[in-house]
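User: I'm putting together a teaching handout on how multi-component assemblies are represented. Below are the sequence lines for each component of a complex, exactly as they appear in our records. Could you produce the 3D structure of the whole assembly as C-alpha cells, so the students can see both representations side by side? Please keep the chain order the same as the input.
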Amino acid sequence: MSMKILRGRAWKFGDNISTDHIIPGRYYHLRSNLPELAKHVMEDADPEFSKKVKPGDFIVAGNNFGMGSSREHAAIVIKLAGVGAVLAKSFARIFFRNAINNGLPVLIADTDKIDDGDELEIDLEKGIVRNLTKGIEIEVQPLPEVMREILREGGLVEYIKKHGKLPVT
Amino acid sequence: MSTMTEKIFQSKLRREVSPGEFVIAPVDIVYFQDGTGPLGIRRFNEFAQGIFDTSKVHFFLDHASPTPRRELANDHRFIREFCWAKNTNLHETGEGISHQIMIEKYAKPGDIIVGADSHTCTSGALGAFATGVGSTDAAVAMATGTLWFRVPESYRIEVSGKLGSGVFSKDLILYIIGKLKADGATYKAVEFVGDTISNLSMESRFTISNMAIEMGAKVGLIPTDKETFRYLQEMRGSSSFMEITPDKDADYEKEFYFEAEDIPPGVAAPHNVDNWKPIEEVEGIRVDQVLIGTCTNGRLEDLRIAAKILKGRKRHPKVKLIVSPASQSVYLKAIEEGLIEIFIKAGALIFPPGCVACVGIHGGIPADGEVVISTQNRNFRGRMGNPEAQIYLVSPAVAAASAIKGEITDPREFL
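Assistant: Of course. Below is the structure of the complete assembly, with chains in the same order as your input.
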C-alpha cells in the first residue's frame, strides 16, 4: 500500500471511546463474520454511524481512543466500514498496534481543531492534516519507523509475507 | 539503575536496554481466548509454517463458555480442531479463565508473556512482563516465538500503611485508577511497591495487576518477594524461580505515593472505570444483580470474604446473585471449604468457571435500567450486553453486603 493522500468528512467523538463502544460484546458471535460485524461499528457511541459514514471519511476523537479490550475486530470493523483514518489526541496502546497491524492509519493530532462535519485532507507520507473547512493545517505526531514500515505494507502479516521477518533490525 | 521491565528485557536480550528502544524479544508464553483465537488462527494460517514451540502456546475457551449460540459453538470447534491438529495446549470450557490458569500453572517471574486479551497483565503480580496484544501480534508470536516491543518507560506507584477494615486490594486499585484516570499510564510499565503491597497476599496482588490496563498501562508489575515464592511453592511445588525487583536507583518517568489509610471502600460508578466514588456517596442505590467472580476477583480469597458475609444470610428477594469461581481449582477448594454451600443457601446461582456475564454475551445479561454491581474490571456502557444497564465495580465484600440488602452497602456493617 502506498501512503496516499486521503480526503473525507470528519465524524467527531469524545474522550475514552472504548472497544466496547466500537464493537459491543453482544455481537461476539459475529466475530467470524466480519462484514456483518462491521454493520455495528461504533454502535454504542453513535447508533446511526454505520449508516452515515461514507468510504474515505475519518473518525476524529479526543483522548484515549480504543481503550479497553484487546479485540482486534475493533480496528478491523473501522477499516471495513471504509474509514480512511482515525485521528485522536491519544490512543490506547493495544488498539493503536492493532490498527497499524491491519493497515488502518491512526494519527495523533490536536483534534480540537476539527469539528464534526469538517472536510479533511491527509497526506500520510508527509504527516499533514489539512482542515479544508477551516483552512488550517494540523500537525501530526510522527509514527515510529517500525509502525510506518508496517503501515506501508498494509499490515503486519503483509509485511512478514513480503520481508520474511519482523520490522526491527 | 534498572526498573523491573528493563531487567526482564535485559535478561532476555543479554544486553542493556533503554526505555523508548524498539526491540525484538523472545516470548515465553503466547495465549489466545475464544474471542480472539479464531482471528489469530486465520492470521497464522496466512503466513506461518508452524508453531514455534507447541508447549508454550495456549488456547482458552473461557469467554463464550458454555457456548450460548451456534456461531460461537463453531468458533470453539475451529479452535479445538486447530489445537488438536497442531498438538498445542487447549483449555476446555469450564476449566477456568485464561489469566487465572496462567497464574496458577504457567507464568513465572522474568517471563515475557503475550496474550490476545487485555487482562493478560494479571501475571505482572508474579514479576512477569505480561501484556495484552491483538490477534495478529499473538499470531506472529505463536509462529516465530518473538515479537517487537517498544521498551516502555516506568511509573512507580508506592502505597504505604495498613488498609482499613473492609478495605481490600480492589478498593485500592479502583482508588488509584480514579486518581490517575483511564489514560493515566498509557503505554507505560507500572510498578506497584511499598509495604501495603508487600503485605498483601498473592491473590490480592493479582487484582491490582489485573486492572493495570484500566489506566492504560502495558504491564502492572509487582516485585517478587517471600510471598511470591510461597505462592509458587504452593501452586507449582517449587520456588526456584528468578527474583525480579527494581534497583533502588531505577529511573522512573513518574512516581506516585498513596497512603492506605486514605482509602475507604469504594466503587467505580457508571460508565468508566476511573469514575471512583467512596462508598458513602453511593450507599442506598438500588441493586438488581450482583456478580462475584471474574479474572479480577474470582479467587479463593475473594470467595471466602463473600462467604463470610453471606453465611447464614439470604440475598435480597429482588436481587439476582451470581457467583463464579475463576478456575476449576478455585471451584474445588471452594467446595471443600463449604463456601459453595453457603452461596447456594444464600440464594446464589453458581456458574462454572469462565468470564460469565462480564463480557456481555451470556451468563446474566441485565435488563434495561437495571443496576449491576460486580467484582469485574470494566463498567463501560454495554459491557455486560445491555447499554441501558448501569454497572458499578466493587470488591467482593461490597458485592456480598449489597446482595443481602438489595442496595449498595458498606461492607463494614457485616465484618
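A couple of points students might notice: Chain B has two domains: 4-259, 267-413. The radius of gyration of chain B is 20 Å.
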